[in-house]
Design a protein that fits this description.
The complex is a heterodimer of chains A (340) and B (102).
Chain A: E1 3-4, E2 7-10, H1 14-25, E3 30-33, H2 42-45, E4 51-52, E5 61-62, H3 63-74, E6 80-82, E7 87-92, E8 98-102, E9 107-110, E10 112-115, E11 121-124, E12 154-158, H4 162-171, E13 177-182, H5 191-202, E14 207-219, E15 222-230, E16 235-239, E17 242-245, E18 249-252, E19 268-269, E20 282-284, E21 289-290, H6 298-316, H7 331-336
Parallel strand pairs in A: 1-9, 2-3, 2-10, 3-6, 10-20, 12-13, 12-17, 13-14, 19-21
Antiparallel strand pairs in A: 4-5, 7-8, 8-9, 11-18, 14-15, 15-16
Helix pairs in contact in A: 1-3, 1-6, 4-5
Chain B: E1 2-6, E2 12-16, H1 23-29, E3 48-51, H2 53-56, H3 64-70, E4 80-82, E5 95-99
Parallel strand pairs in B: 1-5
Antiparallel strand pairs in B: 1-2, 3-4, 3-5
The chains are: A alpha/beta (340), B alpha+beta (102).
Chain lengths: 340, 102
C-alpha cells in the first residue's frame, strides 16, 4: 500500500529535517526516506562530535546536537521516517503525482518530491583493487546480512574499524578460517573488541596480519585467493573464498541519477525563487542543488527549504491562497507548533 | 609556498599554497579530485594523499585522530596522510603529494 502525503523528502539530514518544519507550518505533510539508519545525514554519520560554528544563533553546536534540536523542532508535525532505505525509483502517475519507491518496497505518493540528499547515498567504500567488481555479491561483500551465509568459508576481513573487528569476532566461530588484515597493528575500534580479537588470534582461532590486499584471484565471481602485502612490502598469496572489506562509507549520487533529472556535475540545477528542478514538482535543496553563487552551507539549505515550502504549497494546494505569517505573532502557527 | 601535487593520472600540478590553509583546501581549490566529504574535519578519509618520503619525515606527526581515520582510507601506505591535516607553512615550500586512489 502506497503512503500518500503532500511532500516526499529524500534525505533526513539537517536540510531535509528543517524542510519538514517549513512545510509543516503550511500544513503540508511529509514522509522522509534515508539510506542511513537514523536522522542527521552527514552531521551524524561523519561528524557527530565535531563542532559547527556557523549555524545562526548557535555559536557552537555539534552534528548530533543540531540533529537532536531539529528533531525537537519538527516534532509537532510528526513526519513519517523510512530509514535504512534507498530511494530507487520514481514515476509520474496519471494524476500528476509522483510515486517514489525504495529498495525495501516502501511506496510514497505525493504531488511534490523534495530532494535533500546532500551528496547522495552513503555506500560502502570499495577498495581500489583491480577487478573487485567482478567478485562483488558472490565472493566480496561489504556487509554481513546473515551470518550463516559465511559458514565454513575461508574468510579474509580487511579493515581496522569497529565493523572489521566486530565481524572478525562474530564470524570466527562459523568460518572455516578467518584472517584479519589491516595496514597497522592498531585499530580504530572499541578496546574490548580489539582485546577479544587478540585473544582469538592467540588461541589460533583467527589470524591477524599487518598487511593489505593487493590483488584478487579467481574466475567467474568465485574468489580463490588474494595477494597480501606486508609492512615490508613483501607479497604473498593467501587462499580464501570470501573477502569482506570494511572501510566505512562514502557518498555516491546513486539512483537519483536515473530519475530523469537534468544534472550538472551530479548536482541538480534549480531556480533560486522556488528551488525547483527543471522537472516541475521536483525540488532540490541543500548540498545536492546548484545555482549561481551556491554555497554548500547548512544555513543556505535552511533558506532553500523555506522558499521551497512556499512553492510546494502552490503545487499541493493549487486552489488555496497562501498567507505568509510569522511564528512570533501568528496564533494559528503557534497552535500548529503546540505552544498556543 | 608551493605544493607539487600529482593527480590520479600521474600529471603534476604546481599549486600556490596559502599560509594557514590546509593542503586539502589548496588541492580542492585547484579543482583536483579530492572529495573531502567532511569538509576538513578529519572525519571521512576522502582527502587521502601520499607524501614523498623526504617530505613526510618533515611533517608534524599525525594526531591520534588522523591515525585512526586513516584506518578508513583505502590503499594506505607508510607515507599516507590526510591532506586536511597538513597545514601550509613556509617550511613546507615544495612539498610533494600524490592523490591516493578512490
Amino acid at each position: 500500500m502506497a503512503i500518500e502525503t503532500d511532500v516526499a523528502i529524500i534525505g533526513a539530514g539537517p536540510v531535509g529535517l528543517f524542510a519538514v518544519f517549513e512545510l509543516g507550518l503550511l500544513d503540508l505533510k511529509t514522509q522522509l526516506v534515508d539510506i542511513l539508519d537514523r536522522p542527521g545525514g552527514q552531521c551524524t554519520e561523519l561528524y557527530p562530535e565535531k563542532p559547527i560554528y556557523d549555524i545562526p544563533g548557535l555559536p557552537i553546536v555539534n552534528g548530533q546536537e543540531l540533529t537532536d534540536r531539529l528533531l525537537e523542532q519538527i516534532k509537532p508535525f510528526s513526519p513519517g521516517f523510512h530509514f535504512s532505505q534507498m530511494a530507487t525509483g520514481l514515476e509520474r502517475l496519471a494524476d500528476g503525482r509522483w510515486k517514489l519507491t525504495t529498495d525495501t518496497g516502501t511506496e510514497i505518493v505525493a504531488p511534490v518530491l523534495a530532494i535533500a540528499a546532500g551528496g547522495g547515498s552513503f555506500v560502502p567504500k570499495r577498495p581500489p583493487i583491480a577487478g573487485i567488481e567482478g567478485f562483488e555479491n558472490t565472493s566480496v561483500h561489504y556487509a554481513v546480512r546473515k551470518i550463516d551465509a559465511f559458514r565454513d568459508k575461508d574468510i579474509v576481513i580487511a579493515g581496522g574499524g569497529d565493523s572489521a573487528l566486530d565481524w572478525t569476532i562474530n564470524l570466527a566461530p562459523v568460518a572455516k578460517s578467518l584472517t584479519l588484515v589491516h595496514h597497522r597493528d592498531g585499530f580504530r575500534a572499541a578496546q574490548h573488541s580489539v582485546n577479544r580479537m587478540r585473544e582469538l588470534a592467540s588461541e589460533g582461532k583467527i589470524t591477524f596480519h599487518v598487511a593489505s590486499v593487493k590483488a584478487l584471484h579467481g574466475a567467474g565471481g568465485a574468489l580463490e585467493g588474494v595477494t597480501l602485502a606486508g609492512a615490508d612490502k613483501q607479497e604473498w598469496m593467501h587462499a580464501c573464498d570470501t573477502l569482506l572489506p570494511f572501510f566505512g562509507l562514502t557518498i555516491k549520487l546513486g539512483p537519483i541519477a536515473n530519475f530523469g533529472l537534468n544534472l550538472h556535475e551530479n548536482l541538480i540545477p534549480v531556480d533560486t525563487a522556488r528551488f525547483e528542478s527543471e522537472t516541475p514538482g521536483i525540488f532540490a535543496i541543500g548540498d545536492i542543488n546548484t545555482y549561481p553563487g551556491k554555497l554548500k552551507l547548512i544555513l543556505c539549505g535552511f533558506h532553500e527549504a523555506a522558499l521551497m515550502a512556499q512553492a510546494a504549497f502552490h503545487v499541493c494546494r493549487p486552489n488555496e491562497k497562501l498567507r505568509f505569517q510569522y511564528t512570533t505573532s501568528s496564533s494559528s502557527l503557534q497552535k500548529k507548533l503546540g505552544v498556543a | 609556498m608551493k605544493i607539487i601535487a600529482t593527480d590520479r593520472e600521474g600529471a603534476e600540478h604546481t599549486l600556490e599554497g596559502r599560509d594557514g590553509w590546509t593542503a586539502m583546501e589548496i588541492l580542492r581549490d585547484a579543482g583536483l579530485p579530492v572529495t573531502a566529504e567532511c569538509g576538513g574535519a578529519c572525519a571521512c578519509a576522502t582527502c587521502h594523499v601520499y607524501v614523498a618520503q623526504d617530505w613526510y619525515d618533515r611533517l608534524p606527526a599525525p594526531s591520534a585522530a588522523e591515525i585512526d581515520m586513516l584506518d578508513m582510507a583505502l590503499a594506505v601506505e607508510s607515507n599516507s596522510r590526510l591532506s586536511c591535516q597538513i597545514t601550509c607553512t613556509p617550511e613546507l615550500d615544495g612539498i610533494k603529494v600524490t592523490i591516493a586512489p578512490e
